[in-house]
Amino acid sequence: MSSIIAAPASGSKRVATPVDVLLRRASEGLMAGMLRGGLPPRIDVAGFLARYARRLHGTDRAAAARTLAVAMGRLGCTRGPLPTRVLADRLHHVLRARAGEAA
Fold this sequence. Notes:
Elements lengths: L17 H19 L5 E3 H13 L3 H15 L5 E3 H19 L1
Antiparallel strand pairs: 1-2
Helix pairs in contact: 1-2, 1-3, 1-4, 2-3
């Protein structure tokens, strides 16, 4: 699968990578779940992100695994559960830092 997922915004030279898309979708899903109140107090980060990686890459398991590994590295996570709020904060911090690079 191509490493380019979305066209850059007008005036921007940065193209969204699969990892950027994965982190953005995971952040949106986490926030929606928190608003609904349907999330446990601790979340298995690898399992949570793997669901979004599989949706992003479809049947290409190798690409999903690579994207998942890079995303977890950006978040500074290892396998295991994290408090939901900590994961939300890390996702927010990483996405804000990446948005600052594009500006």
